[in-house]
Specification:
19 strands, 3 helices, mainly beta, single chain
Length: 265
């Protein structure tokens, strides 16, 4: 088993986390004598994951299903773990969960939770509006819309898109841009190594913000109360104390946009 496949097996088994896997893969990439010109494309190593996984790790998903469309009863939360492929989750009026998949998927169901593990392929999940999400992914874009609940997201190299969201969002990211919209907000806590982050908030949102961009800019369209700004940080209150928004970004910009005409809390 080569080094890259060994790292991915450790990740799939839960013995290392996504951040640790990214650092190990990055180290392998940098050690190659011909990669110095492409250091800004650290995560291009993930492009070969589907073929490797398909041929080498298929056995670990022997209890998975070949069906392309799956249906489940309503759950309190979904736990998703994926290595390669785009993920879409959208809320609706239905009272059950429907999964459209293209690739290797293993699913475990209990009374309150639906656990989905994916190796390759795109996945679309339709859920009731109110549900909690726990998402861990390596590569592939993640789109979430029309969801009310707690979202916890860990990713190595994925662009994150969210619209018409309510509740809380916790994100730990290595790379990939983030653009999420919240109408009703509880708390937001994002830590990332290399991302441009755009947070779109209803103009009536009440929140305390604490932003840090070590190597990037910070812009907020709201008029802040008790504003405190330094070269790398911005603190203040949007309208009134309420939710807490904390964003730490090593490299990249942070933008807070005011969605005028939209009501929120």
């Amino acid at each position: 088993m080569n080094e890259r496949l060994r790292i991915l097996k450790l990740l799939e088994q839960g013995k290392i986390n996504a951040d640790e896997a990214a650092r190990l893969l990055e180290a392998l990439t940098f050690s190659h004598p011909h990669t110095s010109r492409r250091r800004h494309k650290i995560f291009s190593v993930f492009e070969w994951i589907p073929d490797i996984i398909t041929s080498k790790i298929n056995g670990s998903f022997e209890h998975g299903t070949a069906d392309r469309t799956l249906a489940f009863s309503r759950k309190r939360r979904i736990k998703f773990k994926g290595i390669s492929g785009d993920l879409q989750i959208h809320g609706g009026e239905e009272n059950n969960i429907t999964i459209q998949k293209d690739g290797f998927v293993k699913i475990k169901e209990d009374e309150d939770t639906l656990e989905v593990k994916a190796i390759t392929g795109d996945i679309e999940i339709a859920v009731p509006h109110t549900i909690d999400l726990s998402i861990k992914g390596v590569s592939g874009d993640i789109t979430i819309r029309d969801i009310s609940g707690e979202i916890k997201l860990t990713s190595v190299a994925a662009d994150i898109h969210g619209s018409n969201l309510s509740g809380s969002f916790t994100g730990e990211l290595v790379a990939g841009d983030v653009d999420i919209e919240y109408r009703h907000l509880e708390n937001i806590d994002i830590k990332t190594k290399k991302s441009d982050i755009t947070l779109r908030l209803a103009d009536a949102v009440e929140a305390e913000i604490e932003l840090e961009a070590k190597h990037g800019g910070i812009d907020c369209e709201f008029n802040l109360l008790k504003e405190k700004r330094t070269a790398t940080t911005l603190k203040g209150i949007i309208n009134n104390k309420g939710a807490r928004i904390r964003i730490k970004n090593d490299r990249g910009d942070i933008v807070i946009k005011q969605e005028k005409g939209r009501k929120g809390t």
